[in-house]
């Protein structure tokens, strides 16, 4: 009789917290051992404890790996991911322990995912790239869209946990993990391009006297796509609270990944819309700080068109 699956989690950011909470619910429902969690800042543990007091909070990455058969992760960028996985793989190499599965939900460069998969294989582990689409409320509701890649036989084992614990839809792009992170960048390109276009449209409307609430109401009926319309709601109100979604710094990181993706995989492609959006995010960061939602790039578009960067009464885009 095989031992019950032990699940670990690394990275308690805006998305990692709700995902890890939902994994603890899955663990409890299936009578599995309590989850082992590590985060660079232990202060984040307080967000998880009320929901899963039985969770074990590790003092190191190595401890999570030692106590887990499957490790989920959501890390801020490539540097953080390489640091965490180097520690994890070095630990497995020293212990000569085989068969650990890493389910990485981070938004990384495709070439980074490919490198991590090779390093995992060299120590007898498996690395799956499983980035997700959706804002924190969708993560809380286990309604994320999951992009899935890695060895088929391992994916089958993981899929039954991802759905229903993490999301409700999967796009399987095959065994090459680089394709999942590439698709994540391409999906984020659509979102960032949409935010840029929205920002220009709202700036035009403000310039010629179209009420932003009227325009937003029109879009709600014209384009019934909630993931896109969430950004119209933010830009129409001019409020870009930190922690409500994806930050400016996160957006800048992803924009750099988008711009380098073609060259990284052997076919450079010019992306003028993304270049412009990145320039506007850089300016909006100067105006309102790094923790704003990335849709705050609208402030830079307003400024470049002779309008005040932030709408009147919005407390500099922060709200009340």
UniProtKB/TrEMBL annotation:
<dbReference type="InterPro" id="IPR006115">
    <property type="entry name" value="6PGDH_NADP-bd"/>
</dbReference>
<keyword id="KW-0560">Oxidoreductase</keyword>
<feature type="active site">
    <location>
        <position position="184"/>
    </location>
</feature>
<dbReference type="InterPro" id="IPR051265">
    <property type="entry name" value="HIBADH-related_NP60_sf"/>
</dbReference>
<dbReference type="Pfam" id="PF03446">
    <property type="entry name" value="NAD_binding_2"/>
</dbReference>
<dbReference type="InterPro" id="IPR036291">
    <property type="entry name" value="NAD(P)-bd_dom_sf"/>
</dbReference>
<feature type="domain" description="6-phosphogluconate dehydrogenase NADP-binding">
    <location>
        <begin position="6"/>
        <end position="163"/>
    </location>
</feature>
<dbReference type="InterPro" id="IPR008927">
    <property type="entry name" value="6-PGluconate_DH-like_C_sf"/>
</dbReference>
<dbReference type="GO" id="GO:0050661">
    <property type="term" value="F:NADP binding"/>
</dbReference>
<comment type="similarity">
    <text>Belongs to the HIBADH-related family. NP60 subfamily.</text>
</comment>
<dbReference type="GO" id="GO:0016491">
    <property type="term" value="F:oxidoreductase activity"/>
</dbReference>
<protein>
    <recommendedName>
        <fullName>6-phosphogluconate dehydrogenase NADP-binding domain-containing protein</fullName>
    </recommendedName>
</protein>
<dbReference type="InterPro" id="IPR015815">
    <property type="entry name" value="HIBADH-related"/>
</dbReference>
<dbReference type="InterPro" id="IPR013328">
    <property type="entry name" value="6PGD_dom2"/>
</dbReference>
């Amino acid at each position: 009789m095989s031992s019950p699956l032990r699940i670990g989690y690394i990275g308690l950011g805006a998305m990692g917290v709700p995902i890890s909470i939902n994994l603890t619910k899955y663990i409890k429902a299936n009578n599995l051992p309590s989850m082992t969690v590590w985060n660079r800042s232990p202060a984040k543990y307080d967000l998880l404890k009320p929901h899963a007091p039985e969770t074990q909070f590790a003092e190191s990455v190595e401890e999570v790996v030692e106590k887990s058969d499957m490790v989920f992760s959501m890390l801020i960028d490539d540097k953080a991911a390489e640091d965490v996985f180097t520690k994890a793989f070095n630990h497995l190499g020293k212990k000569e322990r085989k068969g650990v599965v890493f389910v990485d939900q981070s938004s990384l460069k495709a070439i980074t995912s490919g490198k991590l998969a090779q390093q995992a294989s060299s120590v007898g582990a498996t690395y799956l790239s499983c980035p997700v689409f959706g804002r924190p409320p969708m993560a809380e509701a286990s309604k994320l869209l999951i992009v899935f890649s890695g060895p088929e036989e391992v994916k089958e084992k993981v899929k039954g946990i991802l759905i229903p614990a993490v999301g409700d839809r999967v796009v399987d792009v095959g065994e090459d993990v680089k394709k999942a992170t590439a698709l994540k960048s391409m999906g984020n390109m659509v979102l960032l391009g949409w935010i840029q276009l929205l920002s220009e449209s709202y700036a035009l409307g403000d310039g010629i006297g179209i009420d932003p609430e009227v325009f937003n109401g029109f879009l709600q009926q014209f384009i019934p796509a909630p993931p896109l319309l969430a950004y119209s709601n933010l830009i129409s109100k001019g409020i870009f609270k930190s922690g409500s979604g994806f930050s400016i710094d996160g957006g800048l990181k992803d924009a750099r990944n988008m711009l380098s993706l073609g060259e990284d995989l052997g076919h450079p492609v010019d992306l003028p819309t993304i270049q412009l959006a990145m320039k506007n995010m850089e300016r909006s960061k100067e105006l309102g700080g790094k923790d704003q939602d990335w849709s705050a790039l609208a402030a830079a578009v307003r400024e470049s068109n002779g309008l005040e960067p932030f709408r009147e009464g919005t407390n500099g885009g922060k709200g009340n």
